[in-house]
Amino acid sequence: MQRTPGPLLFYGTSGKGRATERLTRFAIERGFRGIDSALHVRYDEAAVGAAVAGAIRDGIVRREDLFLQTKFTPDLGMTVPQSFATSLERLQVEAIDSYILHAPAVAAWREMESLPVRFRGVSNVTLEQLEALCVVAKPAFVQNRCLATTQWDAEVRAFCRAHGIVYQGFSLLSANPRVLESALVRRIAARVGRTPAQVVLRFARQVGIVPLVGTTKRRHMREAVAIESFELTEDDVARIETR
To answer: Which of 34, 23, 36, 102 has the alpha carbon at shortest distance from 70?
Structure first.
């Protein structure tokens, strides 16, 4: 597995609506230290910030224990500096750890380069778009929807691996129900004494994917954090990757 800046597991806050603050707080309490947000209509970034501020205030974590990642979305009518400043305000922090370009746009990337942020990345990119971006810049992260039907975004992952870029995968569970229900994954889960979801997340980790988990269930949050407690065999990994 590749070494990576930041945590090896993120809690994804997209689509949580009015439950965003409560669920983000639960995720932090259950052990998530990477929090993924965005200034976008599918996110309530102010609620994410309230959860982070509350967890710090109540002594659950220190700010330096958390890795906060948010995104710039070009179609919101803001400049990059405006969006970044708004995210800082809504997240109630003085610094953001990772800033992601929500769609490939070289001009926006150039603006991002002047921001005081540790890492920069891009999301929702094809291989061709990523290759074009890497002619002028090298992102630290690529964040893509990860589907088993494309062998878990194999081409983009291979490019990232070859160029030292960390691949973050979202929708690993929600977009791949047939894998979770498959006889293969269920057999592996029974053998290792874990759930099918844990097997898929552990598989992701072992092939170099940093998973984003967006569950709304506290039990599933605990299970996700526990994937570091077991390993799959090389044969398990190969069979899941190519099924």
So the answer is: 36
pTM: 0.96
Burial class of 98 by CB neighbour count within 10 A (0 to 12, 13 to 18, 19+): buried
What is the pLDDT averaged over residues 216-238?
97
Furthest-apart CA pair in the chain: how many Å? 52
Q: Could you give the residue ranges of the DSSP H alpha helices within 58-182?
A: 80-91, 106-112, 127-136, 154-162, 177-181
What radius of gyration do the chain's Cα atoms show?
A: 18
Beta carbons within 8 Å of 15's beta carbon, 6+ residues apart? 42, 43, 214
Report residue 6's pLDDT band, with 50, 70 and 90 as the boundaries.
confident
CA atoms of 173 and 214, how far apart (whole Å): 9
d(CA 5, CA 119): 9
Q: What domains are there in the chain, each with its CATH number?
A: 10-172+209-214 (3.20.20.100)
d(CA 11, CA 19): 14
Please determine, for residue 4, whether its predicted confidence score (pLDDT) is greater than 90: no
